[in-house]
Amino acid sequence: MAAAATSTNNNVRPHHTLWGDAFVRLRRNKLAVAGGIFIILLTLAAIFAPLITPYTFDKQILTDVLQGPSAKHWLGTDQLGRDAFSRLIYGARTSLAVGVFTQIIVLAIGLPVGAFAGYAGGRIDNYLMRFVDVMYAFPDILLIILLRSIFGGSIYMIFLAIGLVSWVGISRLVRGQILSLKERDYVNAARSMGGSGEYITRRHLLPNSLGPVIVAVTFNIPRAIFAEAALSYIGIGVKPPTPSWGTMISDGNAVIFASPHLVIVPAVAIALLMLAFTFLGDGLRDALDPRSRR
Amino acid sequence: MNVNNSHYLLDVRNLSTEFHTQDGTVKAVEDVSYNVARGETVALVGESGCGKTVSALSIVRLIAEPPGKIVSGEVLFDGTDLLKLNRDRMRQVRGAKIAMIFQEPLTSLNPVLTIGRQITEALEYHMGMQANEAVEEAIHLLKMVGIPHAEQRVNEYPHRFSGGMRQRAMIAMAISCKPKLIIADEPTTVVDVTIQAQLLELIKGITRELGTSLILITHNLGIVARYASRVFVMYAGKIVEYGPAHEVYHHPSHPYTIGLLSSVPRLDEPRKTRLAPIEGQPPDLIAPPAGCGFCERCSQVIPPCKTLRPALTRVGPDHYAACLKVQEGYTR
Fold first, then answer.
1. How many structural domains comprise chain B?
2. Which of A207, A213, A276, B124 could, after both became Cys, cross-link A35 (CB 3.0–4.6 A)?
């Protein structure tokens, strides 16, 4: 009794910030934690790839062509005698970079467009959202192929192409969030204290719509990774010899009956990474939902 | 600059605000005039939907346009017509010269910003304070409104504050830039009775200390009698009676005011007495009645009430009512 009284009086309870609370809830979700750990480990492996891999990604050992897994080549070699394990780890670089950089582009376009449309409302909102609808209706893969043919083949252009077709979802999400948030009392209160539209959007509306945006981004990353893999598979992705999980599957396809592991391993890697992001996204969605607070 | 032709701090003249809806135009506030002297507390009274809040929000132009629109009138504040200011000038008035306290303390604070941050932003914007100065001032303000451990509380998020505490924080925010006028829109409706009294005493004390004028929007006549020097009774978008609070309280002239007063439970009456509610509903403001807005519910209605609009007529010292029965020639 006395102890409880002192604790409230002196306020010794730790601060619970919005994000702190969410993190506590996220940690309770085992799948999300597993997904997060997998992503972190893969990221570390991708960053420190030269230290981990026994060979470089383009080192051809022509005496060891199409080998099965062994102590020398953990995951075997491909038809050019390149170490599959080394290429897998370097390929993670491509995949994660695609995932992260496309989302930076998506946020850089989608957030301001959605926020502006949502706050301005009226005709501006209408025009922006009809443009978004057109972008949405256009087949993604066609647009990417078009952009690739315009911008050329560097890996940055893959980021740009995938980013330019995926920002519409985020902009719609942000607009919807802002439309509902701008009716809140605290927005009115901020206006009554002299806040400008730009200030209210930046300070009150965007931070409050961040939860769903983070979740959407987490789900978007595997989609971008998958898009890159698909592009590489059909030969308009990263240029050889830069490894990507998509190109590895594509290359392995030719020898799928002789060396099925060349297809299976990168395919499993893509599947695992996508699952990891999906689990993390699910966990984040639950954690950032204030109603799930227990 | 406009010539200061009014000795009132705020002089609202013939204000009309409409809302355009798909069913037609709602005349939420029609030809309303009221004024507030420096340091004075004025009450706007009336039932839900009578236009109290809209008339107050019109002053600071926080009516959403569309669907709302201030169609006519003047809002003279310190001699300047607020309705003629551009948006940037208006923003400098809001918060710095006229501040508001809202009805819903639970939702009027942004959940992702600390209480302190929400107060310091206005201080930095309007008063040009540096960050550390503003934090000091925020702590000082929180202490002023009676929040214990203000030094720690300033860094906490709204969800750790109770309803009453949040309303105190809102009051702190409202007074932060030393405004000349505070508009309190039913500031105590959502907190319980004991807190209500505390909060009102707090608002009253602070406005007296700072010499701030106060518009108290309420439907609680008990509050009016205690805190306001003058009262404006609104019904169906119009002012039906106004005057010094004790005058209106002891000699109500408009049947609506009489009805309001007799529908409040009183301790000094025998316990068996039944309350007398006002029967019926307020009129449809899309198609308001041609005559007196209250005629459908009035117990003293006479035939001309249906067709003639009563004008505000003097019924006592500084006391006016808009009812045919007090107007010359219509006594029954």
1. 1
2. A276
Among the partner residues A11, A184, A290, nearest to B107 by beta-carbon distance:
A184
Domain CATH for A142: 1.10.3720.10
- Note whether residue A17 is domain-resident: no
> Tokens at residue A97, please?
């970079």
Residue A86 covered by a domain? no
C-alpha torsion angle, residues B222, B223, B227, B230 (rounded to 10)? -80
A25 within some domain: no
Tens digit of pLDDT for each residue in B265-294?
A: 777 767 777 777 777 778 878 877 778 888
Domain with residue B185: its CATH number is: 3.40.50.300
Contact residues, chain B, for A290 at CB < 8 Å: 111
Question: What pLDDT was estimated at residue A272?
Answer: 92
C-beta of residue A47 within 8 angstroms of C-beta of residue A285: no
Residue B120 lies in a domain: no
pLDDT tens figures, B17-51: 888 888 888 888 888 898 899 889 999 988 887 88
Interface test with A, best of B54, B82, B108 (most A CBs within 10 A): B108
- How far apart are the CA of B4 and the nearest CA of chain A, in angstroms? 24
Is B60 in CB contact (< 8 Å) with chain A?
yes
Q: What is the pTM of this model?
A: 0.74
Closest-CA distance of chain A to residue B272, Å? 42
Residue B79 lies in a domain: yes
Number of domains in chain A: 1
Residue A166 is assigned to a structural domain of this protein: yes
From the list A11, A15, A191, the residue facing B94 with the nearest CB is A191
* Residue-range definition of the domain harbouring residue B175: 10-109+161-268+276-326
Q: In the predicted model, what is the mean pLDDT of residues A142-165?
A: 82
Query: Distance (Å) from the C-alpha of residue B149 to the closest C-alpha of chain A?
Result: 8
Is A167:A131 a contact under the CB 8 Å cutoff?
A: no
| pLDDT at residue B4 is higher than 50 | no
Which strand ranges, in their side-by-side order, compose the sheet holding B68-77?
B24-36, B10-21, B68-77, B80-81
Task: List for chain B the helix, strand, coil content (%; round to 5).
Answer: 35, 25, 45
Percent of chain A exceeding pLDDT 70 equals 91
For residue A204, give its domain range. Answer: 32-79+91-292
Instruction: Find the CB nearest A18 among B60, B126, B157.
Output: B157
Does a structural domain hold residue B147? no
Comparing B186 with A6, which gets the higher pLDDT?
B186
Of B179, B177, B185, which is closest to residue B211 (Cα–Cα)? B179
**How far is residue A270's CA from residue A248's CA, in Å, rounded to a whole number?**
11
Supply the pLDDT for residue A106.
93
CB-CB contact of B129 with B121 (8 Å): no
**ipTM at complex level:** 0.75
Chain A positions touching B126 (Cβ under 8 A) are 194
Among A10, A193, A288, the strongest candidate for a mutation testing the B interface, having the largest count of B CBs within 10 A, is: A193
Interface of chain A against chain B, CB under 8 Å?
A: 11, 15-18, 184-186, 188-196, 203-204, 207-208, 290
Domain-located, residue B146: no
Q: Using a CB-CB distance cutoff of 8 angstroms, which residues of chain B are in contact with residue A203? A: 113, 121
- Judge whether residue A206 has pLDDT over 60: yes
Q: Measured between CB atoms, which of A18, A191, A192 is closest to B111?
A: A18
